[in-house]
Design goal:
This protein is mostly beta strands. The chain has one helix at about 75-85; strands at about 1-5, 10-15, 20-30, 35, 45-55, 60-70, 85-90, 95-100, 110-115, 120-130, 145-150. The protein has a six-stranded antiparallel sheet with strand order 2-3-5-10-7-8. A five-stranded mixed sheet has the order 4-1-11-6-9. The radius of gyration is 17 Å and the shape is elongated. The model is unreliable at about 1-10 (pLDDT under 50).
């Protein structure tokens, strides 16, 4: 089983306030933050991504995941795997921003996560687990996913 992911920079501009106001997030690393091959039931993999408010105003961010089948995996197999994989998203507060199935990681946390101009960055840790209850029927199935950070 292969699990690969990458993040990307998301930018948005607000034209209602003034030309000098910008809403911008920068994430690092931008590519291949999580890679794991031959995952077996009970295995976990973690990675930390730094998210920074590089705009000129306080901003909230939300996290989603977009996944698809890896090579040699059908979309139906990838869906089975995404429904089994558990993902926990934490920050150092300590706070859990999300804990649940990969397939359900959409616009989390529900109220967003605030990055002010005083606290401009934080490390976000993603832990992906294949539960022990998953069984061996998922062996050889691969999934590719993007972690998406949305600024509002």
């Amino acid at each position: 089983m292969k699990i690969m992911g990458f993040t990307f920079q998301a930018q948005s501009s607000s034209s209602d306030v003034s030309d000098s106001v910008s809403l911008e997030l920068t994430v690092s690393p931008e590519k291949e933050a999580i890679t794991k091959e031959n995952m077996t039931p009970g295995d976990s993999v973690s990675a930390t991504i730094n998210v920074a408010n590089t705009g000129t105003v306080d901003t909230f961010y939300f996290i989603s995941v977009d996944w698809s089948a890896a090579e040699s995996t059908t979309p139906a197999q990838a869906t089975r795997l995404a429904n089994e994989l558990e993902i926990t998203v934490t920050v150092p507060d300590p706070a859990t921003l999300y804990s649940g199935k990969m397939v359900d990681l959409i616009n989390q946390p529900p109220d967003g996560r605030l990055l002010t101009l005083e606290i401009i960055e934080e490390d976000v840790t993603f832990t992906i687990t294949l539960p022990e209850t998953a069984g061996t029927s998922l062996a050889g199935i691969g999934i590719i996913f993007d972690l998406i950070f949305i600024a509002t």
